[in-house]
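All the exercises in this workshop are built on plain-text protein records. A record pairs a protein's sequence with a compact description of its fold. The structure tokens are whole numbers drawn from a learned vocabulary of backbone shapes. Once this layout is familiar, the rest of the handout is easier to follow. An example says more than a description, so a record of this kind follows.
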Amino acid sequence: MARTRALDYEDRKKDILKAAAILFARQGYSETLLEDIATQCGVKKSSLYHYHRSKHAILYGLITWKIEDLAWKVDAAIEAEHTPEAKFRALTTTLVNEYIRVPEEMTVLITQMRYLNKTAMRSVIVIQERIINRAVLLIQSLRPDVEITRKKITAMAMLYFGMTNWIPVWYKPSGSIKPADLSAMIADTFLNGVRQLAIE
């Protein structure tokens, strides 16, 4: 007879992902053992297999969960606004808030994807490109009077993500810069640059 799933199965599964995120972010995927994750969760190693079949499955589950959640939040924030600038600021606020709220989980999303196998990587990239395309379209809508090549807009989008992706490395929640101030700084810096684009 198959083992019956507990009512809190999904919650426990996600708790393991959150615990693994802390370890993956602090000491790296390759240096983290299943025993470490089990200890972090306060369970036996054998219990992990009831929720995730391997360490790679935990990493894949963590990354897909976070990137899908981030993509959904980005879409919702952008759709709630009506002007290109407001949409761009909503995108920025969403990214900043997530990097500050769950820094370990977002750090894994940025730094540990290289440990996924090819099949897992392809499925993650599909969702990742959805977020990138959102930014590309937003940047394009900010300056409809300027003809910008797709390659250049994509480069601009990646420069923008460069300002948000490494927030967990240096940002201190106890510092003087609050999340709202940081979001405004990033948005203003990027928007001012976009406004200076010359009409070719």
Notes: The two ends are 70 Å apart (CA to CA).
